[in-house]
Structure formats: structure tokens, C-alpha cells
């Protein structure tokens, strides 16, 4: 069986007929992912927020399973770092510490603190110590 993965360039990924069904299934899912999310997970270009169609596709993936079976050739067209970013943006994050291809998903970085929130405004009976 051969599955054609296309991105900015086309790559053929050959799988022997004796390959487990799960590997073939993963490659088919990756092909679907590239059709809908290629601009967001491809190796070239910057990270960018995915569109709704991409997110609909991403939400169907079980990354705990898929990440274990990604062959090295896929990383020539799919950035695992971008895949993790897109999965997070689409509300289907890959668990931190998961090895996805050769990439290990890091723990999320905490959000930067915003400006301090002001305290309550003084009320009519507050004299703040002055008489």
C-alpha cells in the first residue's frame, strides 16, 4: 500500500502489505489532516491560528494513539511542534510529555500576568484617614 502525502512538495510513504492496520489508518488520518490543516502544520512557515475546518478535523484525532505511530518520513512534511500548537488551539491538546514523532510535547507555558487589578473604589463614607 502506498499513501501519497502532499504539502508544499509531494511525498510518497510506502507501507508494506504486512504493516499493521493501525499504521495504515494513522497514515490515512495524516493525509486527511494535511488536506485540511496543511498550511497550519506544514514544516515551512510560521505558526498560525488554524481555521474552523482544520479544527473540526483536529478534534477527531486521538493524539495519544496517533503520536506513537508517526513514521519519520511524515516529519518531512508535518511539523510536530506546529501540530501540537494547532491541537491546543483547536481544544484537543496533546498531553505534555507525549512523544509525537521525534518531538516531545512540552508543558504549556503559563500565561503572562496582566496589569494589576485596581482595588475597590472608595465609597461615600470612606474618608481614607483624613478629617
Task: Please provide a written account of the structure.
With 131 residues, the protein is α+β, with helices and mostly antiparallel strands. 32% of the residues lie in helices and 11% in strands. The protein contains four helices and four strands. The strands form two sheets. The protein has a two-stranded antiparallel ribbon. A two-stranded antiparallel ribbon has the order 3-4. A hairpin with a 2-residue loop joins strand 3 and strand 4. The chain starts with a strand and ends in a 27-residue tail after the last strand. The N terminus is likely disordered.
Helix-strand topology string:
EEHHHHEE
Number of DSSP-assigned strands: 4
Largest sheet: 2 strands, antiparallel
Query: What strand order characterises the main sheet?
Result: 1-2
Main traits of this protein?
single chain; 131 residues; alpha+beta; two-stranded antiparallel ribbon; two-stranded antiparallel sheet; 11% strand; elongated; disordered N terminus
In terms of topology, how is this protein built?
Blueprint: E1 2-6, E2 10-14, H1 21-41, H2 52-58, H3 63-66, H4 80-89, E3 99-100, E4 103-104
Antiparallel strand pairs: 1-2, 3-4
Helix pairs in contact: 1-2
Short description:
This protein is an alpha+beta fold and 131 residues long. The strands form two sheets. It has a two-stranded antiparallel ribbon.
Amino acid at each position: 500500500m502506498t499513501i501519497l502525502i502532499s504539502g508544499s512538495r509531494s511525498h510518497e510513504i510506502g507501507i508494506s502489505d504486512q504493516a499493521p492496520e493501525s499504521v495504515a489508518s494513522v497514515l490515512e488520518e495524516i493525509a486527511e489532516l494535511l488536506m485540511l490543516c496543511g498550511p497550519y502544520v506544514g514544516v515551512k512557515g510560521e505558526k498560525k491560528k488554524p481555521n474552523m475546518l482544520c479544527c473540526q478535523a483536529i478534534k477527531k484525532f486521538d493524539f495519544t494513539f496517533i503520536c506513537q505511530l508517526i513514521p519519520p518520513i511524515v516529519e518531512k512534511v508535518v511539523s510536530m511542534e506546529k501540530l501540537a500548537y494547532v491541537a491546543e488551539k483547536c481544544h484537543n491538546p496533546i498531553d505534555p510529555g507525549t512523544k509525537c514523532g521525534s518531538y516531545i510535547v512540552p508543558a504549556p507555558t503559563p500565561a503572562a500576568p496582566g496589569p494589576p487589578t485596581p482595588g475597590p473604589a472608595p465609597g461615600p463614607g470612606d474618608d481614607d484617614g483624613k478629617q
